[in-house]
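Hi R.,

Quick one: here's the CadC C-terminal domain-containing protein sequence you asked about.
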Amino acid sequence: MVHDKINYNIDEPSSSGKTLSIAFVNQRQYRAQQCFMSVKLVDNADGSTMLDKRYVITNGNQLAIQNDLLQSLSKALNQPWPQRMQEMLQQILPHRGALLTNFYQAHDYLLHGDDKSLDRASELLGEIVQSSPEFTYARAEKALVDIVRHSQHPLDEKQLAALKGTQK
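And here's the predicted structure, written out as tokens:
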């Protein structure tokens, strides 16, 4: 939930600003488990609903949902996104939604922090960077994962010598 009011008290109803609520709901639909994202934008001044959308989340539609949500918010708020911001967003995101799923999976492995998880995260991120080199966040995340991976293992004599520049 996001509010555009300073010192917002969650227990009191607000009479100014707008409230953006995003909720994720897992439901069984026709024998299949589905995840929905519900988005609601309310103008607190008059209680009117400015935006009310529900998205079905699948493995490949995250980017489409993100783009639609940003466009819908822009339209509801009557506030177009600056061209520079749109260009920056295109630079940092992959062009295929499946890569975004893999990115978040790799990030989840990073959060586990054990050797096996870090190796898997590095492997996934390597595949992402190879197939989508323009995905800037994936490159940065891969560097972070590799630094964490290598910092957990002491160097053997050969690696230490290579670091010092004196090969044995």
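The helical segments are 62-76, 83-92, 97-112, 115-131, 136-151, 157-164.

Cheers,
M.
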